[in-house]
Amino acid sequence: MFKELDPILHSQLRLAIMSLLISVKEAEFTFIREKTNATAGNLSVQVQKLKDAGYIEVIKQFKDNYPQTTCKVTPAGLKAFEDYVTALQQYLKV
C-alpha cells in the first residue's frame, strides 16, 4: 500500500539540499550552507552522499584563485525527488 521512502532523500539536510537545488537549478556550496544553516563539515558529507547516489553533480573549480564548489541536480536526482514527493503524498492521503 505504501511506497518505501528513498532513504537518501529522507534525511532532513539532504532533502533540504535537493529542494534548494531544484528551486535554483545550481548553487555554490557557501550559498547552500547559508540557506540550510548546516556546518561545512556536515554539509560536505551530505553533498557527497547525494553525489554518490547520482542525485547531484558537484563541480570544483577555481574562481579568482579561490576554490569554488557548485552543485546541481542531475536528471536522476530530479526523478528521485519527484518519486519521493509522490510517495509522501500517498502517505498523506490515508
CATH topology: Arc Repressor Mutant, subunit A
Strand content: 15-25%
| Secondary structure tally, helices | 4
> What is the radius of gyration?
14 Å
How is this structure best summarized?
This protein is α+β, with helices and mostly antiparallel strands and 94 residues long. The chain has four helices and three strands, in the order H-E-H-H-E-E-H.
Question: Can you describe what's shown?
Answer:
- The chain has 94 residues and is of the alpha+beta class.
- 56% of the residues lie in helices and 20% in strands.
- A three-stranded antiparallel beta sheet has the order 1-3-2.
- It is elongated.
- 18% of the residues are buried.
- The mean pLDDT is 94.
Write the layout of secondary structure elements.
Blueprint: H1 12-24, E1 26-28, H2 29-36, H3 40-52, E2 56-63, E3 66-73, H4 75-93
Antiparallel strand pairs: 1-3, 2-3
